[in-house]
Amino acid sequence: MLDFTFHNQTDIRFGRGHIDNELYDVLHQYGTNVLLVYGGHSLKQTGLYDRVLGLLKDLNVTELPGIEPNPKISSIREGQKLAKDHQIDVILAVGGGSVIDAAKVIASAAYYKGDPWDLVISPAKRQDLAQLPVVDILTLAATGSEMNFGSVISDPTIPQKKGTQGPNSPAVSFLDPTLTYTVPTRQTAAGASDIFSHLCEQYFDTAENNDVSKSMIEGLMRTVIKWAPIAVKEPENYDARANLMWAATMALNGIVGLGTVNHWTVHPLEHELSAQYDITHGIGLAILTPRWMKFALNEESKPLFARFARAVWDQYGYDDMELAENSIRRTHDWLKSLNSEMTLPDVGITDDSKFADMAKAAVAGGSLDTNAYVPVTEQDAIQIYRDSMHDFAE
Amino acid sequence: MLDFTFHNQTDIRFGRGHIDNELYDVLHQYGTNVLLVYGGHSLKQTGLYDRVLGLLKDLNVTELPGIEPNPKISSIREGQKLAKDHQIDVILAVGGGSVIDAAKVIASAAYYKGDPWDLVISPAKRQDLAQLPVVDILTLAATGSEMNFGSVISDPTIPQKKGTQGPNSPAVSFLDPTLTYTVPTRQTAAGASDIFSHLCEQYFDTAENNDVSKSMIEGLMRTVIKWAPIAVKEPENYDARANLMWAATMALNGIVGLGTVNHWTVHPLEHELSAQYDITHGIGLAILTPRWMKFALNEESKPLFARFARAVWDQYGYDDMELAENSIRRTHDWLKSLNSEMTLPDVGITDDSKFADMAKAAVAGGSLDTNAYVPVTEQDAIQIYRDSMHDFAE
Q1: Treating both helix axes as pointing N-terminal to C-terminal, what angle do B320-338 and B281-296 enclose, rounded to 10 degrees?
Q2: Mean pLDDT on B140-144
Q3: Topology agreement, domain A11-179 and domain A184-387
Q4: Considering only CB atoms, which chain A residues are within 8 Å of B21?
Q5: I need a labelling partner for A324 at 20 to 30 A (CA). Which of A46, B198, B330, B345 fits?
Q6: What's the rounded Cα separation, in Å, for the pair A330 and A328?
Q7: Which among B318, B245, B47 has a CA at the least distance from the CA of A209?
Q8: Count of A–B CB contacts within 8 Å?
Q9: Residue A317's pLDDT band (boundaries 50, 70, 90)?
Q10: What CATH class is the domain B183-387?
Q11: A184-387, superfamily in CATH?
Q12: Which sequence spans correspond to the domains of chain A?
C-alpha cells in the first residue's frame, strides 16, 4: 500500500428529509448573495426549480442557467463575471456532475483576475486562490463531483476537454435519491456506466497488496451491477436510486483510490471522444471499457482479472485465463444490458479519420504509454477506438 | 437505505513519510502549548517518545502519561486540570485507541467547568462546548478512534464503562504502519478482533437494501481475515500492518455504517466484562462474538448469515442454514487462530456471580431487548456469558 493523505470536508445530507428543512440555513451561514447554477429546462419541468427558489426566501439569487453536459469554458467565464459583479457569497449548484463541476471552477474563478481557462490547464494556480463555498443538490448519480475536488471542462473551439482539481470539495451536498426518479433510462444507464468505470480505473492499478481499497471497490461494483438494472426498469425504486447515488459518491470521493498509483486509462481515451464529438461521457465509457479490458488482459494482468471475475462476477474455477475472459464478457454483457448504444457508430461516429489525433492526445494527456496499468501506445489507442467501431468480439 | 448525514474533517496522513516532515507544522498551526498524552513505558522502549519530543522543538510540552487500556475518568480529570493550568492549544495523543479516546474527552473537558464524568454520561453537554484540536500518532490498529467522534471512558470505582461522542473527530491523524511493528502478538490479535467486531456490529443490522455499506463491510472483513494472521506471524510485514491499520480506520470512521440502524449488541455485552474485570476489550469481543452469532441465528436472520458465508467466507451451496452455521464456525475458528484466550476462564473470569448484574446493565445500556438486530433479553445475555465459560460448541 502506498503512502497517502486524505482530507475531505464535504458535509453530506443524504435522503428524503434534508433539503426542505436545511437548505436555507446551510446557504445563509455563508451570506446572502447566492449564485444559482443549473442546466436546462428539465429542472423546471420536474418542479425542482420552483421548489428550490421557494426555499431561498429572502436570499439574493443571481442565476446562471444553461450549463451543458461536458460543461464549457464559456459558462465558467459567464459565472466568473456574475460572481464578481454580484459579490456572490455562495454558489448553489442544482444538477448533475456537469453543473457541480462548473460551479467548483467558477468558485475559484471568482477570485482570479485572468481568464479561467488558465485555471483549467494549470490547476496549480487554483491552490493559492480562495474558493467560494459550493452547495449542491444532486440530480444524477454518476460523477462523484458532489464529494471531490475535480472538474472536467471543455473548450469546443480548440477542441479540448481537461480535468482540473481545486483546493476544496463542495461544502455541503444534498443527495436525495427521489430527485433521480425522473432521470431518463439512457442517462441512468450512462451514469451507472460512469460509476462502474470510475471503479475499474481505480481497481486495475499497479499498486500491490492494497486490499482495503480493492475489496471496497469490489463491493461497490457488486452494488452497481445489482441495482443499476433495477433503476433502469423501475425508475421510482427508492433503494435502487439510493444505492446508485451513494455508490456514485463513494466511487469517486477519493477513498477507494487511497494508497494506489491511480493512473487512469479509459477516461483519457473517452475524453477525446466527447471533446471531438460531444457524446455522453458515460456512454463513451461503456463503449470503450470492454475493448480496453480485452487489450489489457495479458499474462501479467491475468491474476487481477481473475480476482475481478471471482469477487465481482461470481465466477468459479481454477483456470485464471478462462475466468479473466469470462469477467470481460460479463462486463460487456452487463453494460450492453443497460446501454442500447455500444459501438461508436451507435453514437454517430462513423469514420476513423480523427482517431490518430485523438490517440495522440489521449496518450500524451494521460501519460498512457508510461503510467497506465497496462501501457497504451498511440497505436494501441487507435486499435481500441477501431475495435469500438463494430460489435464487441470476444 | 435510511437517511443519514456525514461530515468528517479528520486529515489523514498515512504511511512512512509523514511524521518527521509534518508533525511540527501541524501542531504549530494551532499554537505553542501542547499537551502530550500517552500511555506507558512501551512508548519509551520503542524510541517513539524521544523521536516525538525531538520533533516538537521549541513548542511548550506538558505531559500526561499513564493513560491505561480502558481509559479511566481519573486520567481525564488530570488532563482537564493540565489543559486549563497550562493554557493548552492542542493535544497530541501518541498511542492506541485508549490514548486517543482520552485525548478527545480532555479536549472537551478543557472548556468545561464541572467534573468531566458529566460529559461521559451526558454527551449532549459536549456538543455546545468548544473542543481543543486533537492530533494523534496511532500505534495500534484497532478502535478507529483516530477518525471518529467517540470515546469509551471507565470509572472503575462504580464500576461503569460508557461511550461518549464529541463534536469533532481528531484534527489530524498520523497513521504509520511501521509504528505497529512492535505491537505484541496478543495485542495485534485483539486489535484485529476489535476491527472485525466493529464490522459485524454494523453488518448485522435491520436496515434493508443498503448494499453500499454491506458490500464495503464484506470487503473490509475479507481484508482483515486475510492480513491479521500474517501480521501475527510476521510482525514487520508492512502490507499486513498497513492493511490492518487502514481497515481499522475505515471500519469505524462512520462511513460503512451510514444508512443503517446501527444498534450494536456485542460491544455493550463486552463493555460490562471489561468494566467488571478490566480485561482486554478485543479479547472480550473475540470470546463473545461467536456465542452471540449462535444466539442470533434464526429463520429470520438466516439469509443475512448465508450472505455473510458466501461473500466473506467463500462458502458455496444452496442450503442457507448450513451456510449460516458454517459462517459462524469459520468466524470462531479464525478468531481462535489469532487469540489464545477464547473462553472467559482463559482471561481469569471463573465464576458467574456477576452475570445477572452485567446482563441487566448491558441490556439497559444498549437497549438490547428492543433495538438490537436480534433482541437480547437479560436471560439471553446471561446465557451468552454462560456459553462463554466453556469451549465453543457449534
Answers
A1: 170
A2: 96
A3: no
A4: none
A5: B330
A6: 5
A7: B245
A8: 134
A9: very high
A10: mainly alpha
A11: Dehydroquinate synthase-like - alpha domain (1.20.1090.10)
A12: 11-179, 184-387
| DSSP at A204 | S
Count of residues for chain A?
394
Q: Which amino acid is at A9?
A: Q
- Greatest Cα pair distance, chain B, in angstroms, is 66
Chain A residues close to B1, C-beta within 8 Å = 15, 177, 238-239, 242-243, 246
Q: How far is B311 from chain A (nearest CA, A)?
A: 8
Please report the pLDDT score of residue B41 as a whole number: 81
A319: pLDDT strictly greater than 90: yes
- What does the longest C-alpha to C-alpha distance in chain A come to? 66
CATH 3.40.50.720 fits A11-179, yes or no: no
Angstrom distance (rounded) from CA B360 to CA B354 = 10
ipTM: 0.96
The pLDDT mean for chain A works out to 96
pLDDT for the residue A40: 84
User: Quick one: CA torsion of A198, A199, A205, A211, rounded to 10 degrees?
Assistant: 150
**Residue B394 confidence (pLDDT):** 67
A205: number of CA atoms within 13 Å, CB side? 25
Q: Find the helix or strand (DSSP H, E) in which A314 lies.
A: none
Instruction: Count helices and strands (H / E) in chain A.
Output: 17, 9
Residues of A in contact with B242 (CB under 8 A): 1, 209, 259
For A6, the closest chain B residue by CA position comes to B12
User: Given a cut of 80, is residue B188 above it in pLDDT?
Assistant: yes
- CB-based contact B212 A316, cutoff 8 Å: no
> How do strand A150-155 and strand A160-165 relate by DSSP bridges?
antiparallel
pLDDT score for B40: 84
